[in-house]
Amino acid sequence: MNMRTVLACAVGTTTAVFLTIGMGAAQQRGAAPQPGTTTPTPPPTPQRGAAPQRGQAPPAAGRGATTGYTGPRTADKKPDLNGFWQIISTAHWNLEAHSASEGVPAGFSVVEGGAIPYRPEALAKRNENLKNRLQEDPMRRCFMPGVPRAMYLPFPFEITQMPNHILMAFEFAHATRTVFLDGTPHLDDLDFWMGDARGKWEGDTLVVDTVSLGAPTWFDQAGNYHSEALKVTERFTPVDATHLNYEATIDDAKVFTRPWKISLIAYRRLEKNLELLDYECAEHVYEKVFKEKAGKP
Known about the structure:
This protein is mainly beta. It has 3 helices and 11 strands. Strand 1 and strand 2 form a beta hairpin.
C-alpha cells in the first residue's frame, strides 16, 4: 500500500519535519522481482586453490601475455631500452625456492615449474657445489658472472641501444656484453665468460641467443651450474616505460633432462645522476686471501 505520513512538530521557532515514506512498491527482502526490474548479480566467490603454491613465485603482471607497449621508442621505432635497469630478486642467491640463512634472504623459485630438471649425476654435483659454495663459487674468485647470472646480480646494469648492436655494462668486475643485431653468425670454437650473443627483434621483444659459454660459471650462489654445452635464449619484453619482462631459457643436455626457463622483472632505475659504480672484486680477494695469509707458511 502507498502511504505518506507527515508529522510536523513545532518547538519554539524551530520546526522539525519528519518524512516517512511507506514501502509501497519497493521490493521486500526476499520477494520476487517486479516485472521490468533487474536483480544485481552478486560478485563471484573466490575459488579455493587460487593462491600460488608455497615455493613458487606469484605470477608477474603481464608475464606471458601481449604487453601492448606504449612507452618511448628509438628513431628506428624499437622500444627504447636505454638507461639503467635492475632485477630485484633472490635469484642471485638461489634460483629455486629456499629458506633464509645467514646472509641469504628467503625467496620463491623463479624457475618455471619450481625445480631445475637435473640429471641424477648432475644433481649430485650441484649438491656438492652447494656444500662447498663459500670456496668454490667462481664469482668469489672474481671471475665474471656469466649469462644469465649477470642479469640478476644485486646491482644495476646499463643498456646502451643502437640499431646494429646493444651494449650491456655491469658493475661486477667491469663485465660487459655486446649483442649484435646485424645478422652476423656466431663465432666458432671459442669460449667466453659472457658468451657470444646475437639478437633480433620479434615485435617489441628483443630475443638474444648466447653460445660459447664454456667458462665454468654458476647460475647462483647455491651451486646451480652448467657444462660447456650451455645455450641461453633470452627474451626482453618491455611492459611499459619502467618495467621489463625478462625470460631466459637454459638448454644444456649434458646437465639437464630438458630445457628450462626462468622469469623475472627488471625495473628501470630513475634516480637523478645515477651511474654504474665499480665493484673491484680483486681488491676484496686480496684483502681476504693474501693479507690474511701474509707471514703464514
